[in-house]
């Protein structure tokens, strides 16, 4: 316990307050880091947390701080904690809370709030907002602590809900008056949650049914999603893949769970694998838009899906689930591996060979595009150069956001270590990049490369100062083609920049120099390699502005089909 308790001899009690109790409850539950932006009424909470030994990382905007907390949740398997002020600061954190929930990342957003008596009668308090009601639609749960004696219970419930079952974002409202409330420590009632995400075993009959269906398949496929990465069942997943010989396809944040260079990876033969697979084992991956909802023409109309998920409500969401395997991935995959003794599965050789052939052809085409020494640089040129340098840093974390920057980056950059890639995820959200990068550096101490489109960078660019203030080993690489998607559109009236146009000749490197970081401006792959090599070996904050061809890229990246077009103007 760190609470500085005051002995009040006149009343014969030991007094503490809400601020101290929140810090004590977080520490008791092993919270080591808080991400946030201070102000009324939580400034002293951040101060006390820091004084108690909790690491406090102060951001410039709550959205980026929230994205950092969400990424910390994914990377550490423990809820990341965001701290915000009331009203607008709270709302700034909402995108991050919603994004964490959609992505199934455990996170607790603690929001200081205004005077309940004034807010509830809409009497016009400072930063007045009914935060609990506002948070509800965007969170796995939204809770409020109304009395200091409930702080222990409130923190325990928030952490438990965030981490257990399908992980997600929990909003915890703490009014200023509760933080300031004093009480006898005897009434504090703090507790540590025990086994935050208990194992959940699947039914034996479902395990047998799944293995029998896989054994009968001619073209089986395993799809690994970020739920599988989060579950930390790396050894059992490898055992299942290798014992069955079934090809696997990693979703983008599951890359590295098994190395991309693994002989059974069919990342480079994705289209063929989806179109041809007859039995698909989904492990912590949803059949959402990222997997074309499991529908033709991307998938075979006859494909049968076996799904492993902790949330049974996920089954049958888009296609019939042939075998639902409800449980946590560690327990389910462990049971599948064990079940192989009685229900052996061996992937047909022809199917593997077919996919291996396609992989070879596609890999060669990709290598050609990446090694072309094009100036002005194309996305493949720049990402190919980055790939060469990162090959020497397998432990580096890769953060990737943008449209073409993301779509091409996902394919070009191989990963060989689990949970080292963070990107726009399920929501396709922009603005996560610098928050994710900061969390990766803070939580791991390893070098981080944030590869950002110039538009994506702008959403959280001011956090470059946060990176410099904490001297984090983060290199931000901006692939600057001068626009949202690309930089060559024109306003037909000639009056103003077109809606998609930014500034292709911007020198973003000056931004980081303002805060003492190293800034580079490059326009050739050779200079990009040199700058990235230097920044990676320095371990210091750096920003590399890469001048790309303004014609490089496609509108909406790989999502052109989702972008409706109006009649010609
Ligand atoms: P991707 O975008 O990589 O395809 P998704 O976010 O769509 O992955 O899917 C992740 C799935 O994993 C979610 O449906 C979630 O319920 C599930 N999940 C998360 N953690 C676990 C776990 N420990 N055990 C089982 N399922 C999990």
From TrEMBL:
E.C. code: 4.1.1.8
DNA damage is among the record's keywords: no
GO molecular function terms noted in the UniProt entry: magnesium ion binding; oxalyl-CoA decarboxylase activity; thiamine pyrophosphate binding
Cofactor(s), names only, from the UniProt record: thiamine diphosphate
Residue ranges occupied by any Thiamine pyrophosphate enzyme N-terminal TPP-binding domain in the UniProt entry: 18-133
Family: Belongs to the TPP enzyme family.
Name of this protein: Oxalyl-CoA decarboxylase
Organism of origin: Mycolicibacterium tokaiense
Gene assigned in the entry: oxc
